[in-house]
Prior knowledge:
Shape of chain B: globular
CATH superfamily of chain B: P-loop containing nucleotide triphosphate hydrolases
Helix content of chain A: 25-40%
Shape of chain A: globular
Helix content of chain B: 25-40%
Radius of gyration of chain A: 21 Å
CATH architecture of the largest domain in chain A: 3-Layer(aba) Sandwich
Distance between the termini of chain A: 27 Å
Number of domains of chain B: 1
Number of strands of chain A: 12
Strand content of chain A: 15-25%
CATH class of chain B: Alpha Beta
Largest sheet of chain A: 8 strands, mixed
Number of helices of chain A: 12
CATH topology of the largest domain in chain A: Rossmann fold
Strand order of the largest sheet of chain A: 6-7-8-3-9-10-12-11
CATH topology of chain B: Rossmann fold
CATH class of the largest domain in chain A: Alpha Beta
Largest sheet of chain B: 8 strands, mixed
Distance between the termini of chain B: 30 Å
Number of domains of chain A: 2
Oligomer: heterodimer
Order of helices and strands of chain B: EEEHEEHEHHHEHEHEEHHHEEH
Structural class of chain A: alpha/beta
Order of helices and strands of chain A: EEEHEEHEHHHHHEHEHEEHHEEH
CATH superfamily of the largest domain in chain A: P-loop containing nucleotide triphosphate hydrolases
Structural class of chain B: alpha/beta
Amino acid sequence: MMNEPILQMKNLEVDFKTYAGTVKAVRNVSFDVYKGETLAIVGESGSGKSVTNQAIMKLLPQPPAIYAGGEILFGETNLLEKSEKQMEKIRGNEISMIFQDPMTSLNPTMKIGKQITEVMRKHTKISLGDAKKRALELMQLVGIPSPENRLNQYPHEFSGGMRQRVVIAIALAADPKLLIADEPTTALDVTIQAQILEVMKDIQKHSQTSIIFITHDLGVVANVADRVAVMYAGEIVEIGTVDDIFYNPQHPYTWGLLGSMPDMNADKKEELRTIPGSPPNLVHPPAGDAFAARNPHAMKIDFEKSPPMFEVAENHYAKTWRLHPDAPRTQIPEVIRNRYIQYNGGDQ
Amino acid sequence: MAEPILTVNNLKKHFGSKNNLVKAVDDVSFHVMPGETLGLVGESGCGKSTTGRTIINLYDKTGGEILFDGKNNDSLSKKEQKQFHQKLQMIFQDPYASLNPRMTVFEILEEGYDIHKLYKKKKERRQKIYELLESVGLNREHANRYPHEFSGGQRQRIGIARALSFDPKLIIADEPISALDVSIQAQVVNMMKNIQRERGLAYLFIAHDLSMVKYISDRIAVMYKGKIMEIGDASDLYDRPFHPYTKSLLSAVPQPDPHSEKERRRVGYDESMHGYNEDEELKLRDFGNSHLVYCSQKEYESWTV
């Protein structure tokens, strides 16, 4: 499964200039995306997950955004050095994006067929007839019934789930190498969400497209992801395979996230675990571990020095001092330990 | 057994004209007991929000009756109507949109007392509002701030404080946590449960997040196209769903567990699968343990085997 990465993000820093000061929205973020895999990025609102991905597409208006450091290698080239003209050739062609709200990403005054063929006609020399044929194929692929009729309809004639399918068809029109999906199912009902996730997985099997899937729904992550990156306060605090993150999480913030979601078997009499407090102000990011103030297990060093990424296992890293060889063994919360025992059999 | 705090009988709410009639709520009946939480779930457009809004009189109902605290909503005196509006409150989904941005938190919480002419003494009123803020985990310093100075979770707390200001007996919570982050959702849900325990109030909890609904509800009603398909004890309904729509809905919920996700098989639902004849009577039938399912006599017989 691990082959050559198609995207390498190295030490990305994104700042926003505001009246209140400079907000350090993305702080030293690095990750790779491999061919044909789905990398899920999870985190609360304001954790920098959307900004990180908008940086890949260079969609952030400058000012107020500033790409303050790092590089985003797509193949051989650094996307941050591309001009706006050059980016236009990449957007929608080699990298495409799906947004949360399908109604705002479609043009309400343009027929669906035109919206799908437009992308192909922009990026490739294709005749209108061939483009239409391809549009029909795409609509079939994403599961839109009777595409011949639907081609000539407007977005308002589609339901929410069908609109999101159209958006996916547009995103796939130019056969992208990388698809960035920013909360693509958050606005949809569970039954529709399940269908859309199935469509995305099917397409990936066919075309080996890599997907970056941004979401805050851990159920969705468990369903779609091969690997997971957990973001907090503009940093990646833990990254690993989906099994690493769900059954052997190491960062206290990951524990907090997993613990605060009731699963269907949750005991009602027990209180839901919450993460006390709220995320730090990123105008003045804390000196040490950004999560220290909300972490009941925090040590002295957590408030003083930012931890590096420690390797837990191959491809599993976490940014917390508790993994330092000299750190005292912290008590892993019972819910989390149970997850480990349940699926790995045995104690840790 | 105690009397229900809310009884809804054959409630109907239709929109549109004769030629384009939308039966948003179509013959819905249920009750809520004092101190209990009834979860109302379904997909968007199934009529769950309309049901809540019709109960609290935001919409005029088309038919049926609503009994609150034993009294029929249609035959209330002026005084009883005021009582009704105090003891039945609502929390909305979007905490941004449901607070007036030009008013301080104090003014927002005070407004209801102005309207109902309560706590007229300044000192008494201030005391009451500080208590409200503290009961939702905020403090008195927050009273003089404006809504934009708060995070989403805090704003929802203000909405809850406002709903609590008249010591209500029932709160209709319309997707109160859908707009919040996971970790904040847990804080708000824990708080709502604590408040319920302390004050013994009942919730009608409208939501589409089925795991959270199961966690918070004592009983659950599943709605589809304006009708209740299935209603029963929360764990009973999840463990032993009868109606194919309930089964389909439950099978669509992704669990935060990659191993079970690989095994999960989604079942679809299509109304035509019932193959009802025109002369068959469809209604809620009792499957035991107050677990009711909307079905025909034939289905009832085959499902109970």
